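Figure 2 data, in text form.
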Amino acid sequence: MEHETNLKATMSRLVITEEQQDQLDETLQTLLNATRGRSVMLIERSGLLLSSFGNEIANNIAISSLIAGIFKSITALSALMGESEIRTMQHRGSGTNLILNLLESGDILALMVTHQVEPKDYEAPVEGAIKILSPILIAARDSTKKNTPYFGKDSISLILGKL
């Protein structure tokens, strides 16, 4: 039973309404256009791809999982070195820059831009998008805290045992 409680605490619960999804999509599209970005992804903290726009990446579902893992690894490494929190990470590749931002909800916003796009061109739009996305995702998570049933191994055994 203790294992199930720990698992339940670490599992992410997120229910996005159609209206919230439209707001997320509109915000990502606006960000992509404002930054002249190649692509943008909204990644749930567990690595699930919530939404993406821009140039199609062959395996954006795998990439979203890897980004979440990288962000968690770097955050853990930084904590060991005394840094309390990492909000932004950037990777400069041979042709593109990847900008990763941790939202207040714990989810990740990933923006890919070419080297021609300067930081001054994307920093304000990214901050604006974060201010819109975070409350939507927090509300989507909070909505699951109201009487959300959880059925673990022991609780299912109790129910089936009564049949």
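Caption note: The mean pLDDT is 84.
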